[in-house]
Design goal:
Two copies of one chain form a homodimer.
Chain A: E1 2-6, H1 14-24, E2 28-34, E3 53-59, E4 62-67, H2 71-81, E5 90-97, H3 104-107, H4 109-119, E6 124-129, H5 142-154, E7 162-167, E8 177-180, E9 187-196, E10 202-211, H6 220-225, E11 228-234, H7 244-251
Parallel strand pairs in A: 1-2, 1-5, 2-4, 5-6, 6-7, 8-11
Antiparallel strand pairs in A: 3-4, 7-11, 9-10
């Protein structure tokens, strides 16, 4: 089994090391990850500037590359340049330092890599731990991640569906299990910090907190708040089907 | 009515001038647009570097700003800094130079601005013309855009739904009308052009063509290929609801 691993926190992040370790139990692993953090870069792709791909390490059944690109670029570069015209059998992204639950999935580079793989027809799973710390403890998540990967290899998802897995920041023995959920309807409450640079020109820097108040027990926020690992099946069809007929009524056909 | 206008092709693009002209017929207009092209930046936000916001022009019921940020940043900066704690009544994005139909919506900065406004609870519409040329002729689209904006002001969409409007590159009299559609299942066929820089180091540059072959007459690609303007209602819930139960069966709860 050929597995492509990427993330958005960069090749230097702690989280990707845990995911690489687990991935190597399942087959040949190729890592293509950004050379520096790309959090919050969403589904951006690099089209106006050249991309670089540098091999850092190679050994039996393992290759590691870094790129100056975004997470979606890493998936594309890996797929198109490193698999001899075939495709990886599985794409894994993460483990992200911080939540990609609820609407965070929209901004997430980690999940953009997963969605890109899904658009290209590859099975793909993104993993995130609800701990932003660079030295976060990912060991508690290992067994759950291994089980989810194993289950999804044995029971492949239909093309067009990928998974967004989030893991609460609690001890392993406190985790009550896995819940399959929908994306919670919760949001960031943000402000811009206003400062002046040494030249007296004002600048703005985004700050905020996530107000995760979706009380629906079917939502990923509820699962995480109640000591479950959340698994959301994600697709890339943004059509709001419920509104098709009302808008047809308004706009003609 | 207070309207925020943005795009991803930059404040210097021709397409945004047509949209500004139409928007000013409906109320007070504030423009916040990127200082250079940001095509393909998806739902990226700027979190690791400071943002700038520079006023370029002001007159009665009109203000124009440019920012070093991404399209989503432009919506956030405009909303949070320029509306005295209230919200714009409407956010318009575009007119994009090039298609945002089908899966292009995932990569589009133009539509990311619309989706961001939607997440923040504001009515929002994105407009795109299927012509990449910097000097594309947007005049053919004006009446249709005006009508769509008017209809959506008179009949507001529910919160959580926004619109992705694409206009074919044909003469006005050849346009057969507006069709409300779903996002087509069509894709880019891409390659990396490989070159070497003046120092002999290889680099890669994305190139490709869109293979828009979704034959479903309910899809936006079909509408555009058949001389209709496509209108897709878009939401930001990526949950693949059809897969919830099958995956619950696999992963436990």
């Amino acid at each position: 089994m050929k597995i492509l691993v990427t993330n958005d926190d960069s090749i230097h992040a702690k989280g990707i090391r845990t995911l690489i370790k687990i991935a190597r139990e399942f087959g040949e692993v190729t890592v293509v990850a950004p050379d520096s953090p790309r959090s919050g870069t969403g589904h951006g792709i690099t089209i106006a500037t050249p991309l670089r791909l540098k091999k850092l390490h190679e050994e039996d059944n393992y290759r590691e590359y870094m790129s100056n690109g975004l997470p979606v670029d890493c998936v594309k570069l890996g797929q198109k340049l490193l698999f001899d015209g075939s495709q990886p059998d599985l794409v894994l992204s993460g483990i992200n330092h911080g939540s990609n639950a609820s609407t965070n999935v929209i901004y997430s580079g980690t999940m953009a890599a997963v969605i890109e793989a899904c658009i290209e027809g590859m099975p793909a799973i993104g993993f995130s731990l609800l701990d932003h710390a660079p030295d976060a403890d990912f060991s508690q998540a290992e067994d759950f991640i291994r089980d989810i990967i194993k289950t999804m290899i044995e029971n492949p998802l239909p093309k067009g569906t990928c998974l967004n897995v989030n893991i609460p920041k609690i001890k392993k023995e406190e985790i009550l299990g896995v819940r399959v959920c929908k994306q919670a309807n919760a949001f960031w409450n943000e402000i811009y910090v206003e400062r002046r640079d040494p030249f007296g020109i004002e600048y703005f820097w985004l700050d905020g907190e996530f107000v995760g108040e979706d009380a629906d027990p079917e939502s990923d926020m509820w699962a995480l708040n109640n000591h479950y690992i959340s698994v959301v099946p994600v697709h890339f069809d943004l059509t709001d089907y419920k509104q098709l007929n009302p808008i047809k009524h308004l706009l003609g056909k």
